[in-house]
Amino acid sequence: MDLVSMSTLGELKNSGYKTRSIKNELRENLICALQKGENPFNGIIGYEETVIPDIQTAILSRHNIILLGLRGQAKTKIARLLINLLDEYIPIVKGSDLNEDPFHPISKVTHELIKNEGDGTKIEWLHRSERYAEKLATPDVSVADLIGDVDPIKAAALKLPYSDERVIHFGLIPRSHRSIFVINELPDLQARIQVALFNILQENDIQIRGFKVRLPLDIQFVFTANPEDYTNRGSIVTPLKDRIDSQILTHYPKSIQVSRSITEQEARSSEDQKTLVLIHDLLKDLIEQIAFEARQSEYIDAKSGVSARLTISAYENLVSTAERRAIINKEAGTFARVSDLYGVIPSITGKIELVYEGEQEGPSKVAHILISKALRDTFAEYFPTPDKLKKAQDTNIYQEITNWFNKGNFVDILNNLNEKEYELTLNKVPGLSDIVKKYFPKTDKKNHLLLMEFVLHGLTEYSLLSKFRMETGVQFKDMLSSMFTMSSEDENDESDNDTDFYR
Question: What is the pTM for the complete model shown?
Answer without folding.
Answer: 0.85
